[in-house]
Design goal:
- Strand 2 (44-50) and strand 3 (56-63) form a beta hairpin.
- The strands form three sheets. Strands 1-2-3-6-5 form a five-stranded antiparallel beta sheet. Strands 4-9-8 form a three-stranded mixed beta sheet. A two-stranded antiparallel sheet has the order 7-10.
- It is built from ten helices and ten strands.
- It has 332 residues and is α+β, with helices and mostly antiparallel strands.
- Mean pLDDT is 87; it is low at 3-9 and 186-197.
- Helix 4 packs antiparallel against helix 7 (230-246) and helix 7 packs antiparallel against helix 9 (276-285).
- It is globular and about 55 Å long.
- The chain is 32% helix and 14% strand.
- It binds the ligand C[C@@H](Nc1nc2c(c3cc(-c4cn[nH]c4)ccc13)C(=O)N=C/C2=C\CC1CC1)C(C)(C)C.
- Ligand MP6 binds at residues 37-40, 45, 58, 60, 94, 110-114, 116-117, 160-161, 163, 173-175.
- The ligand C[C@@H](Nc1nc2c(c3cc(-c4cn[nH]c4)ccc13)C(=O)N=C/C2=C\CC1CC1)C(C)(C)C is lined by residues 37-40, 45, 58, 60, 94, 110-114, 116-117, 160-161, 163, 173-175.
Amino acid sequence: RCRRAPAAAALSPPPVSTTIPNKSKRTAQDYIFGKVIGDGCYSTVFLAKDIHTGKEYAIKVCEKRHIIKEKKGEYIKREKEALNMLSNVPKGFVRLYCTFQDAERLYFVLSYAKNGELLPYINKVGSFELDVAKYYAAELVLALEKMHSKGIIHRDLKPENILLDENMHLQIADFGTVKILDPEVIRTIPEANIEDNSQSTERERRRNMSFVGTAQYVSPELLRHREDTRASDLWALGCIIYQMISGLPPFRGPNEFLTFQKILKLDYEFPEGFPADAKDLVEKLLILDHTKRLGVEDKGETYESIRKHPFFNGIDWDTVLEQSPPTINPYL
Ligand SMILES: C[C@@H](Nc1nc2c(c3cc(-c4cn[nH]c4)ccc13)C(=O)N=C/C2=C\CC1CC1)C(C)(C)C
C-alpha cells in the first residue's frame, strides 16, 4: 500500500530545449511537459506534447532513486512488459508508444486518455442509467478477456484507473500491480492438494508477495491467502458494476481494516430498486470462493457465461467497441 505522494513530490518538468535530435530515440527534450494529470505511488503522469508532431501524450515519469529505495524495480519491469503485451490490442487499454531514460528518471510515453478517470463520472451523476452501466460493464468484460487471455491479471482494477478516451471508450491504466502468469501455466485452477516442492515455492512466493490492491476492490482470496488469480479481477468487476449502478462500492468501512472485515464476511447489501438482473450478476461475481465465481470455469478467450448473463441482454459483443458509447446523463 502506498500513500499518495504530496503534490510537492510531483516532479518539476525537465528543461525544454529546441534542438531536434536524430529521429531514432526520443528524449525528454522532444516533449513540452504540461500539467500533472495523475499521481501514482512512485510516479507522476504529465500531459505532454511532442514538439515535432504537436501530438498530445501522457508521459509517466519515474524517479530512479525512488524506485531503488522503494524496491519497485520489479513492478516497473512488469508494468512495461504488460503494457507492451497489450499495446497491439487496438482498444481497451492505454498504449505504450516508447520509453527512454536520463540520469535520474525513466519515461513512459503513453496514450492520453482525454476524458480522464471513470470515477468522477460516477460521482458527478450519482449513478449510471442501466444502459450506460451495461455498456461500460461490457467494455470492461472485453478488456478483461483480452488481458486474461494473455495471462495478465490486473489485481487493482477500480474506477480510478479505468480511463476514458476522447470518444468516451474505456482505457484500462496503471499496470504497476499486474501479475503476468507464466505462459506454461495452464488456466489457474483450484490448488491441487498434493504436496510437492512447487507448492512450497508457491507458498513462499505468497508469503513474500507485497500486498496489492485497493481496499474496497480487493478480493477475499488476496486478503486471506495472498492468492491472486484471474478471478480476483472478476471480483473487482462485480464491485465496479455494483458501483456504476448504485454510486458507491459494495464494501465500505470507516477504515481499511473494517472494509476488509466486510469483504471477508461478504457483508454488503443492495439498495432499494437495484435492478434484478444486475443484482443476480453481482451476486454471481461477489462469491468468497473464487473457484465458484461466474466465468472462472469458462475455457478459451471469452467469458461466455458472463456474456450470456441476462444483465447483458441487448449487447452485441462483436460491435460494442465500434459503437459510440451512450451519453452519461445525470440520473434524475
Ligand atoms: C491511473 C493513473 N491516472 C492516469 N493515468 C493515465 C492517464 C490519466 C489521465 C487523466 C486525465 C486526462 N484528462 N484529465 C485527467 C487522469 C488520470 C490518468 C492518461 O491519460 N494516460 C495514461 C495513464 C496511465 C498510464 C499507466 C501506465 C501508468 C494514475 C493515478 C496511476 C496516475
